[in-house]
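Problem: given the chain below (424 residues), write out its structure.
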Amino acid sequence: MDATALDAAVSTAATATTPFPRTEPDRAARPEPEPAPEPGPGAAERADAAVHHRPALTRLRLSAYASHRAAAFPLGPVTLFTGPSGSGKSQALEAYQALAVLGSGATLEQVFPDPRALIPERAVPDAERRRGFRIGCTVDGPVGPVRLDLAVQAEPALRIVGERLSADGQILLSTALRDPGRRSVQAAWLTGGATGVTKAPLPDDRLGTAMLPLRVAGSTPGQRRVLAAAEQVVVALRSVFPCDPRPERMRAPVAPGWGRLLGDCANLADVLRRTRGECGTRHQLLTQAARTGCGGPVVGLDVRAPAEGPVTALLDRGPGRPGTELGRLGAGELRFLALALVLLTGPGVLAMDPAAELLSARQALTVLADGFDRDLDRAQADELLRLALMACGRGHVRLVASVGEACAAAARGLPGVSVVDLSA
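Solution.
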């Protein structure tokens, strides 16, 4: 069924109360038209994702989100957002993280604790005093580019009022709020054949795309197309690790645990204990990086782990020299070690729950790092960029980060790095 026929089949849902915030009071309430298919960041990028079967988010859209209006950001293997304070760097990463958490099945209240702060400043409420925000993304992978668009009502009540999943201009899933008195939206997804579409209510506080694998049987070509697209999006969204190393939490010895790095990297010592014993090659690469990112001579990364007691990590300074415990390192050194470890490892070492639909070798881990170069000097930032390019060049890891102008200037022109400047 082509896009026109599918639009007609779901017209009652698509023309329900408009989910989109308005900036002019007299503009007619109507849904946003389906845009033409996006070319994505480039044929080479799509080919790489398809060949390696690693779904990846290649475009982030902030149609009406906080300070962003009609913004679309292409995302490559290494994408750095830069700009002055208040330009929206952190907001872009927060939107990416919000989509990732929704893809894991979280509710809107869990993802948006302060939704009113995300309503664009000039958004005018409709006749029912409703306002909200819109975000979306494009995910490339084995089935080609798949577009997800989401409209969220922030007031008077937090709910999803419109969702659209599409590929090659064909709508695969469309939802809309038909009865404000019910906590559900009317969903219609492609079935194909004589039926055309299937309609059913879905909860209005969760991402419908993430629920499709549990609702669609996959017994027709249309249903299988919907499932393949939804699973590609969910795999990409769940393969995300937000990382913000907090040096003040990394200095003290830590209790031995499961050896998976937390987002604030407070258990760095315990993870180093694990990588030293299980991942010799990666531990050696981290040691080599530490020689650039840490002051003084570095022979190795050592760990003291008594049978009963906390784990302490330290820099081995060589024969005849006492080791330096992590607690004595500067904030930049600690952030450097933590970020280098994240770039050199994978989901098995990070505290995250990637999708089980694909083997980890067929997933591309995306590291989100707000303030990537915070507390770092030029040599540390350059070494982390080198590690990022090395890790991302193999296709297993992607990096989306916000940085200052100095780091952005050093990254401009580097093959494989995309710098998004929000200063304009």
